[in-house]
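A common beginner's mistake is to predict each chain separately and then try to dock the pieces by hand. The better habit, illustrated here, is to supply every component at once so that their relative placement is modeled jointly.
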Amino acid sequence: MLGYIAKRTALILPVVLGVCVIVFVLIHLIPGDPAMVMLGQDASPEEVARLRSAMGLDRPLAVQLGSFLLRLAHGDLGVSIFQGEPVSRLVLKQLPATCELAVASMLIAVLIAVPLGVISAVKQHSLVDVASMGFAQLGVSMPVFWLGVLLILNFSLRWGLLPSVGRGKPFLEGLAVLLRTGDYLPLADSLRHLTMPALTLGLTTAALITRMVRSSMLEVLHQDYVRTARAKGAPERAVIYRHALRNALLPVVTIVGMQFGALLGGAVVTETVFAWPGIGRLAITAISQRDFPLVQGCVLVVALVFSLLNLAVDVSYTLIDPRVRHGIAQRQ
Amino acid sequence: MKRARNKSVILGGVLIGGLLFVAAFAPFIAGDPYHMDMSQRLLPPGPGHPLGTDQFGRDLWARLVFGSRVSLQVGIVSVGIACTLGTALGLLAGYAGGWVDAVIMRLVDIFLAFPVILLAIALIAVLGPSPVNLMIAIGLVNWTMYARVVRANVLALKHREFVEAARALGLRDRAIMLKHVLPNTLSPIIVLATLGLGHAIVAESTLSFLGLGVQPPEPSWGWTLAFGMKYLRDAPHLSTMPGMAIMLTVLGFNLLGDGIRDMIDPRTRNRA
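With all components supplied together, the output reads:
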């Protein structure tokens, strides 16, 4: 199995390389000269030419790509034009906020979707089923930013319950303070800020996962082994949770993993609506300022995290499903 | 079960039929979407202005009615681009096999490594914000699902008797692909395209919301919603109404796509 994991990891290397090349080419196709952007409109052509040469922009594109990949291998993503700081430092500074939002959203999504999907499948065609499928259909049709606006309108402006923008203390920091000193205020502040953005992303994701859990459960509930379990007199609870749900959750793991990546993309919009200081907002600001290295860094980091998540999903299959593990062992 | 499926198609059809009607007859059912009247700004829904007015006193109903044309146009063209590109590459990959398949599928893997909206944002940054570029960007980020589905279908079809027979008759590969294989992969493509229209309209409104899509003063649902956020306290209808329009449209396409899939796919036919 270790061999499979190593092989699967080796397979994402060409993908990662392809991602780096596409991002590099895309950013270099952006109209406008980075040297000109850095120096401003008043710069003389000589100054621009000097800076272009210093930045290596006068070299052939293939040479630039080679040196870009070489620097990338050393973790060097370049320097932000506007902030003058290394891009890697800026991205790493914002990344925890995005991860916090994505994890909280996924937690909300799974907590809603799994029970709802299971109940819908078990009580197919009941009122609960119709209602939860209605919720799911509305959820997948609702643009993320509109849900965000509706939440702000009601929870912030109308009822004044939650702050509409910004991030409080980082969640983990708040938790640490609570555990160390017993002071719950930083954690409460963190949760108050996190609730609406996480609900926005979480509810739309929950809709998608609910449909997946329901259809996967329905498929499993019609299998022979479920009928056998019932026939041998196993209690209905055991049939549903021990026999059906454990098997139905396999495709759900895939969709959760893939959705986690999509959450990173969805965070771009949610972070803009709630002024959440994450990597998505950083990317949007960088685009509006034409800060090329920063745009490149943000897109690259998100795509790499996305690829690694897909790898994790594949590997997790071998851990949770003995059939997959057995199949790999047989092929080897 | 059959009734539930039909309901989904009917409801989706009604929503999309309504949208097409509104878009086709926009000049007859709404006034000028560009007409400003500062004495009438930020009015709530009421007589004269069924959905209220915006910050320049323009009629919101007219803005949304004409905005439906923009959304539909971007949706249809971008799905057309994604569908054509994805189907062609999927057909080629599945039929040719070997290194052609390997290269195309690696390209799919690379594109799938990007969250769709982020890649679309990067493309817009390259191409510049405009409706045409918006269609190209949304089309270019969505071709992979068509390629994967078509390739999988072609792989299943290419060793079937009717393809073998066509080959035995001496037909060229191009003719076999276009006349015999492609028509047999059409039903999943129709389902994907219907669902894809909803996704494309959300992508359009999202990019316009972020200021990277349709530019003012052209009426766009996403942009109107984004601008309305500045007046959320005094005129919430400016944000809620365009959002409702987007949601109903996407809901319509989703219901229609789901319904058609359930009718075509024998595996879900009994479980819908």
